[in-house]
Amino acid sequence: MVVQYQGKQNGIPTTFTLRIIGNNLSKSSSNYQIDLLVGDKQLPTFTTFIHQSLSNCLKEIYLFRKHNGIQFDADSEKVAPKLVPYDLVLYNAHKQGLFAV
To answer: Residue 88: is its pLDDT beyond 60?
Structure first.
């Protein structure tokens, strides 16, 4: 799943891309990897690349965003059409954490 936002990093307008990769290990277990890109450059995040939940991935992006002066414009959200519907439902349920102040 790929989601793009327009926003600013330290006051400079730019495009941010979240790549969310879900790996279903079994019917009761999944893990997620999330990448944050500014333009076409991948940024390193704080802890790990693999998380047990999408919510934990988004919390990590929130902390990284807050620490690095990044602001997303929620109204500019663009979701790439190729995605797993369940991941979109989870993302929509937890994305408010990306915009917390």
So the answer is: yes
